[in-house]
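Inverse folding, one chain.
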């Protein structure tokens, strides 16, 4: 499986390099680096507290009048998940199947391929919508059931319980901050559940149980450098012909 994932990654990288070298007059090449602020809706842990990497190359195809429209494809390494520090409250964060726990940490590492349609205004700000396919390449999940030894790792592997594939819808805004360097903010959300989880907690008269579907919920903040970018036209100064 690892060899297959590496092969797929190599093919995408080859397409990226070939496109930029051979069609530089029509395609733009870019690289981005930043962070994800993520949570998993449905895990009974709240807040965009999980910080992870978001990095990779992309190919951009401008089209239309004045090249205001563009279609981009990216190849990203994206770290997502959820986290909750230990809390000293009467109601601790709830664990699946086993009651309460005091801490939680979930890391989902994806190889992600977003496809995005952008509209660029005056080559200064760009707004886009799209979707992405994500392939899970690594997963780890830790829970703490009041264990003085610390976090306890759960039985999560690439075989489950988290799905290997995630499909997300996304919105994207880019702002040029200097020459070919852009500031990028992106929001993405899973279109289908990445897992369905069973929860239970002891109550005075028995056990309260329920099931929740879980979804990736991510805000990304990145810097994007577009190598052969189309820069804004500089305003021509009017000649002063008054004597």
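Residues assigned per position:
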């Amino acid at each position: 499986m690892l060899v297959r994932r590496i092969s797929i990654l190599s093919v995408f990288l080859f397409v990226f390099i070939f496109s930029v070298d051979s069609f530089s007059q029509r395609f733009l090449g870019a690289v981005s680096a930043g962070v994800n602020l993520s949570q998993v809706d449905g895990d009974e842990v709240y807040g965009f507290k999980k910080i992870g990497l978001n990095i990779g190359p992309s190919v951009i195809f401008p089209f239309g009048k004045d090249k205001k429209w563009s279609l981009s494809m990216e190849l990203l390494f994206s770290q997502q998940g959820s986290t909750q520090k230990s809390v000293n409250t009467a109601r601790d964060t709830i664990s699946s199947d086993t009651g309460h726990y005091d801490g939680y940490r979930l890391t989902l590492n994806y190889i992600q391929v977003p496809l995005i349609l952008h509209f660029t205004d005056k080559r200064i700000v760009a707004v886009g919508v799209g979707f992405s396919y994500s392939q899970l390449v690594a997963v780890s999940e830790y829970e703490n059931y009041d264990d003085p030894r610390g976090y306890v790792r759960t039985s999560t592997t690439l075989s489950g319980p988290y799905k290997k594939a995630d499909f997300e819808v996304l919105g994207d805004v880019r702002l040029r901050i200097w020459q070919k360097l852009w500031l990028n903010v992106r929001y993405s959300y899973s279109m289908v559940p990445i897992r369905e989880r069973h929860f239970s907690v002891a109550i005075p008269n028995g056990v309260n149980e329920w099931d929740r579907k879980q979804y990736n919920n991510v805000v990304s903040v990145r810097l994007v450098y577009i190598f052969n970018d189309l820069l804004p036209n500089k305003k021509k100064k009017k000649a002063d012909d008054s004597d």
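The chain is about 10% helix and 60% strand. The helical segments are 2-22.
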